Each structure stands twice: as structure tokens, then as C-alpha cells.
Amino acid sequence: MKDIQLTGAEILMRALIDEGVDTLFGYPGGAIMPVYDALYDYRDRLNHILVRHEQAATHAAEGYARVSGRTGVCIVTSGPGATNTVTGVADAMVDSTPMVVITGQVGVQMLGSDAFQEIDVVDIMQPISKWAYQIRSPKDVAWAIHRAFYIAGSGRPGPVVLDFAKNAQVEKAPYEAGTIDFIRSYVPIPPTEKESITQAAALINEAKRPLVLVGQGVELGHAQHELRHFIEKAGLPAGCTLLGLSALPTAHPLNVGMLGMHGSLGSNKKTQECDVLIAVGMRFDDRITGKLSTYARQAKVIHFDIDPSEINKNVRADVAVLGDCKETLAAVTALLRPNSHDEWRESFRPYDEEERAAVIEPQVHPTAGPLRMGEVVRRVSELTGDKAVLVTDVGQNQLMAARYFRFTEPRSIVTSGGMGTMGYGLPAAIGATFGAPDRTVCVFLGDGGLQMSIQEMGTIMEQGAPVKIILLNNNYLGNVRQWQALFFSHRYSFTPMANPDYEKVAEAYHIPALTVTDRDKLDDAIRTMIATPGPFLLQAAVLEEDNVMPMCCPGHDVDDMILTC
Amino acid sequence: MTDKPHITIDTAPSEGTQLYTIIVFSENLAGVLNLVTNVFTRRQLNIESLNVSPSGVDHIHRYTITTYTDEHTVQTLVKQLEKKIDVIQAQYFLSDEVFVMDQALYKIATARLIENREISKAIRFFDGHIVEVNATYAIVSKNGLPEETLALYRKLKSFGCILQYVSSGVVAVTKSQREELKEFLSLREEEGRQGQQLSEI
Ligand SMILES: Cc1ncc(C[n+]2csc(CCOP(=O)(O)OP(=O)(O)O)c2C)c(N)n1
Ligand SMILES: [Mg+2]
């Protein structure tokens, strides 16, 4: 075996298969053609999804990775193919999504000569990826691929970019099967200090008003179960970040809702009252903390994380529990005294009540006026048994979906958090249908964001990908319009938008579609969408100038939330 | 409008900052220097001096970087450096924790050297050495603390004799009794042999 010579392109195929890859998202072009030629012989083992734009390949790979926990893979050509993946790579980096992007590159003899479609991919990608490397020899293909998968999927996951020079695709080398699971310069899981476990437990046992912040780290670390034991044993109320929403069932009695800018009133108010703040796999983004200098100053902070560089970055931790949260949560739980904190938990209730009356009821159960985003989201959630995968684009549609969708299963939210990438939703939903083929995948989009990736209807058509597309059409770049209303005296500078006839667009792609305007037709429309096999576009004409509330305005204290405006 | 930005990279230390020496070890793969300097740029830190050399351990490069910053920033900085896959170790030190040395070369006009005897006196006073002389120029070499090499530069400049000046930037070794890179590497090699093992918590 060792002396059989294979081309670099074929070594790539074998190495991908050895890594357990069976799905690829990509788009061909000159500098990657030898790889596509090899792929032709591996079609039966590697299912290649031809997207309609390389950015969509990255988001599809992200969607695939988020729901499946496996590393998403993209293959694109050099130059514009590679630069089109930049947004997706950056998105996967800030949201810790495992992904391997393989970009074609000109042959080494042409590097640096401004050859056709030659661009310095490694330099562009280095600051926005977990690792970026140029493969210049067929002898390095297997090493680079296995290293890439190990890096992308281990520790705090992230994107890896491999820039594959054309000569290395066509030249030959022997291939030896095998993977990499050790890199001396890379410690994916930092060692846990014993004292941090005992100190964390002691602080929590002493706490009178504890509050847990649940981040995506819990999902990435497969620690949903451990988290539940942890909070249940000591009666710890827990709020979730946007990306952590499905780490804890929405209806769990200890779940106090989403944190941050458009989170629940109770969780944000109580952040400023708690005595011990326990962050698990989250990074204190400014959308969570509001004004940092006043954030939870009264509280002792315990920070569980796998990434040492997150400790003390934004919020100073009194106890840092480094390591894999599946292990560390269980270790701390073992030392906890059973507790229920009834009085403290009860104190969230008036805020929940206030928010319900002022914000949630009018949004979810309105009785007059146009449809509202919240009621559409909630009915889709309910009619799919709260079991669907929620994918969102960015904007009001995203925040309303996050607020009103309900989760019963882990790994059920796919959304662009750290980057807020419009155009993410539709391709990510395509990827999610491949990553979770047995689940219903619902994507909520705005009229702006849909048009940023609308070409992917072609991919949906060709693949028959069963994406349930719910377009929350407000004829505005709604989220920006909301900020203009609040902070720029209602000067709607370039946020109203003329829209095409989306039903006709869907029809052109043979995607069944329906528009709903009336409240009493909503349930039927959703049922039709669910009952129709394959993809479906449901357009909801929603209240145009609606606002996502409550809101902690940028630069304000986290508990300074407005309920109406 | 003159071509001058309002925010410049200023070498003068600002209030609340100290000079830190950051020592970074990395695998000698292509592109790591960029990775390292990017972390400084992102944190708006100006690199005072940068030196890259082999490390004394095969296939490992050593970066010695000095920058003015505060303790919180430098703590985050080294963690962000270590987060880079091919960076093996990054540590920060205050001036008294490292032995530092700078090498400077001064190219001066021979005519000035001859006409002003104060110049040779200054060179001797600062412990510099004339390593080459010809009819046009002389080359003076000096090593020492960065403030000393700089002081000789200022002195020679005051005589108006300098044609070129270059300083290598600080190189530094730690004064610690422990060799943490070696300890880390042998620990890692052990772990590599045993496979990733979980701590006994
Ligand atoms: C690529 C990109 N460009 C611009 C923005 C800024 N932005 C955030 S939300 C938003 C409006 C989105 O409008 P739409 O998709 O219709 O969603 P809505 O808020 O109306 O639900 C814009 C422009 C962004 N997040 N991403
Ligand atoms: Mg809109």
C-alpha cells in the first residue's frame, strides 16, 4: 500500500473518507479542477452538494456542523472562490463551528506572480481562522487534512482553511491511512485545577442568589445532561445565550430565558442582583453584558471554559474552571449541596409577569391588526411539536425566532451569533437538512436576508432539500429600521425596500409557496407547509414597523431594559 | 490637508503602562510571524522591538518582543498568542525578570571622527568599538541595554556624524531557575505517548 503512488487530489479523497466525511458543499473552478476530477470517481462515497455561491457553501457547512456535531467541509476554487468564503470562515470562527475549507490555488511555480485567480489566501484567512495552511506538495496532503480535522473539531472548535496548490493536486505521493490526534503546540483541553472545582462548589454552596449563564459551550461539549444535573441539584436558575438556547429545554422550570440585549427581563434584571454568577461555555459578548463596567459588579464570578483566553477577557473571574465542561460540571455537581433557592427563583416572577403582559402576549397572541412575527414563530414551533431545528437569518426575524421558538431537543438552534451574517439562514438551513436528515428544519428569514442568498433556491430545488422557509416579510430592513426609530429620530435612511413577488420566485424554482396575511389562515398555512413533502416557502406578511422588545440599548446597564417604545 | 493621521503609533509609553518583554516559542512553519504580530496589532499594541531567531530547540523559533502595555492587556495577549495552533508558549516578563541585550551599529563619517576628538572619547566612554574605518566612514559596534545603545546614538547624533544607525532590538533570556519550554515539551511528549488523558478530578 505504502508504495502505491496517488495524485494529491486522490489522496484528499481518501483522507476525507478516512475522516468519516460523507458530505461536501462546494463549487468548482480552474484551480480546483483536479480535485473535482478525482471527486467524480468518489461520487458514491462523497455526496457533493453544488451550491450557487461559495459563501453559501460555508454557511451550509456551518449548518451541517451545528446540528450534527460533525465537521462541515467545503471545496472551492482559488481567487474569487476563496474570497467568497471569507465571511463564512469568519462566522465559523466567532461562533466556534468546526469546518474545513479547501481552496484551490495556482501551482507553486506561479505563486507570487499575480497569476490568474491567485490570491494570498493564507494571509487573508489567518486572522479569521483557527488554522490556515498552504499545501505545496502531494506529500503533505494527508498530513494537512488530518491535522485540519483534528484542529477544527477538537477543543474549542473552529474553521480551518487549506490552500491547495494545483501542482500538489496532480503530482503523486504514497498514501498511508491514519489520523492525527496530537499536536505538541496545541492543547485542545486545558488541564483542570482541582482547587478550581472545590472553590467553585464552595462559592455555589454559599450562594444565596446564584445565576447560571448557559452558552454554546454546553452544546459543543455535549454537556446538556451534566448541566441539567448541575442546576437541578442546587436549584440554580439559568439563562441562555442566543447560541446556547437549546442546551436547556425552554420549558425547564429553572430556565429563566434568553440573556442579553433582547433577552428576558428577569434574567437581565437578576444579573445585577445575583451574588454568584456562573458562566458555562460563554464569552461575555457585549450583546450579553451591555455596559461592561457596571455588569454584575456585585457578584462573584465563576467561569467554566475550554478556552483560557476567554478567562478575564471581558469579565474578571473569581474562579476560573478550565477544562471540558462535561467533566468539570459533573465534578462540581458532586460537591454541591442540594438546594432549591425558592425565594430567589420566585423573585424572577414579577419581571416575567411584567414582560408577559407588556411584550409577549401582544406579540404571540395579538387579536387585531396585521400578523406579528412572534405569533408566526410560536405557531410554527407549536405545530412542529417544539421539536424542529430552528435556523434563522439575521435581524428582527432572528431575534423574534430566538425569543418565541421553543426547544425540547439539544443542537436545535442554528444562527449567526458573533458575526450576525445576513444571508446565513437559507444556506445554513440547507446544510442542516443534510446534518439532521430525520428532523424538520425551519428557517425564519427577513426579506433582506433572503435576498442575500436567494440563489440557493437553486440548490434546494436540485437537491429537493426539505427546507421549510418562513419569510417574515415586513418590507423593511427591519432591525436597522428599529434602531433608526429609536436612536435616529425615525429617519428611515435606506431601510424601506421594494420586494419581488416571492411566490413567483419560488415558483420559478419549483418550490411550493403560500402567502398568509390573515390571522385565521395562519394555522392552515403552517399545516400545509409541514404536510407538503420537501421544501416549502411560507411568506407571512407581518406588521411592518414592529419592534423587538424588550431591549437593553447599547451602552446601557444590562438591567436597564425598555419594554415598549 | 497635510498627510498626517491624528492617531499615530507613538513610541512614547502612555500612562499606566510598563515595558514588557514577551517571549514566544513557535513551530517554524511558514506564516507564524504574521500570526504573532497580528495579535499585537489587534490589541492596538505597538511593538517596540522584535527579534526572531532559532531557539536552541530544533524546529522551534523564538520571538522576543517588547511593548508598552498594562498587566491586564499583556495577560490577555499571551493567552491569545498561545491560542494560535503553532505557537507553543508565550510568556511575559517585566524588565527585572529577564537579562536583556541589544546590539547596535553606528556608521559615522570619518572626516568628523578625525576633526572632533570628542567623538572617539564618547565611543570609548560608552564602551563602543570601532570595527572598521576607511576614508569615508567608520563603523562602531556596541552591545548593551537598549537604553545604553540609544544613549550612544543620541550622543553621536549631537556631533552630527551619523550616516546610519541600526539596533537589533532586544534579545532576552529569563532569569528564572526553570526552563519552562523544555518542561512543557517533555510534558507534552509524555501526553502524546499516553494519548490525551483526562485529569483525575
Ligand atoms: C451582511 C450584513 N449586512 C448588513 C447587516 C446589518 N443588518 C443587520 S439586521 C439588518 C436588516 C435585516 O433586514 P431583514 O433581512 O429584512 O430582516 P428584518 O430585520 O426585517 O427581520 C441589517 C441590514 C448585517 N447584519 N449583515
Ligand atoms: Mg425585513
Features:
heterodimer, A: 565 residues, alpha/beta, Rossmann fold, 3 domains, 6-stranded parallel beta sheet, 24 helices, globular, B: 201 residues, alpha+beta, Alpha-Beta Plaits, 5-stranded antiparallel beta sheet, 4-stranded antiparallel beta sheet, 6 helices, binds thiamine diphosphate, binds magnesium ion
In short:
The complex is a heterodimer of chains A (565) and B (201). With 565 residues, chain A is an alpha/beta fold.
How far apart the termini of chain A lie comes to 70 Å
| CATH class annotation of the largest domain in chain B | Alpha Beta
Bound molecules: thiamine diphosphate, magnesium ion
Helix fraction of chain B, binned, reads 25-40%
Characterize the largest beta sheet of chain A: strand count, sense, and whether it forms a barrel: 6 strands, parallel
Kindly state the percentage of residues in helix of chain A.
25-40%
Largest interface summary:
A-B, 34 and 30 residues
Quickly count the helices of chain B: 6
